[in-house]
Amino acid sequence: MDLSFNVGTSCFNLRACAVIVHGETLLVMRDQKQPYAYLPGGRIKLNETAQQALIRELQEEIGIQAQIERPLWVTQAFFTEPVSQQKFHEIGFYFLVSCKENETLPTINNFIRWENGIEHRFEWVSFDELSDIDVQPEFIKNRIRSLPEQLELLLDFNQGSPDFG
């Protein structure tokens, strides 16, 4: 059971996200439902750690055995999803991730993977180009060049106030 639930017109979501860097590029993904790019990862299940969830999600989405290097950020974000207009309160765990030894990930071209009949398009975006695309969470654009050595707590009001009324 995912730790995501609706309360009225709002949704609480607990998510684990991968920051996968190759040189000066960041791996982002897109799907058919969202107009923006976002980081690979997914919802955390009940009785599952954020780390376990991320390793599971990367196996499901990309087909890799991931290795978590270190935690980067824990965020509390408040936003309205642009397609459904649903309001979200999301707690996100962001980790620097690499592939386990003997695992490879395409690093030159963009690539597509399918999960449960849903197409996921993965693309490597240069740090310089991040400011030109809609990537969520937006804070990643400013923080990708100087990843923290220790866990940081962030509050993200990028798409609105937490006062949903």
Brief digest:
The protein contains two helices and twelve strands, in the order ββββββαβββββαβ.
Structure description:
This protein is mainly β. Helices cover 10% and strands 47% of the residues. Strands 1, 2, 6, 7, 8 and 12 form a six-stranded mixed β-sheet that branches. A four-stranded antiparallel β-sheet has the order 3-4-10-9, with no helix packed on it. Strand 7 and strand 8 (87-99) form a beta hairpin. The protein is globular and about 45 Å long.
List its traits.
6-stranded mixed β-sheet, 4-stranded antiparallel β-sheet, mainly beta, 165 residues
Shape assignment? globular
Fraction of residues in H or I helices: 10-25%
Structural class call reads: mainly beta
> Uncertain regions: pLDDT < 50 for 5+ in a row?
none
Total number of beta strands: 12
Order of helices and strands: EEEEEEHEEEEEHE
Strand composition percent: over 45%
Main beta-sheet annotation: 6 strands, mixed
Number of helices: 2
End-to-end separation in angstroms reads 28 Å
Note the quaternary state here: single chain
Rg (CA only): 15 Å
Mean pLDDT: 89
Helices, strands, pairings?
Elements: E1 4-7, E2 10-19, E3 21-22, E4 25-31, E5 37-38, E6 41-43, H1 50-61, E7 66-80, E8 87-99, E9 111-115, E10 118-126, E11 135-136, H2 139-143, E12 152-156
Parallel strand pairs: 2-8, 5-11, 7-12
Antiparallel strand pairs: 1-2, 2-6, 3-4, 4-10, 7-8, 9-10
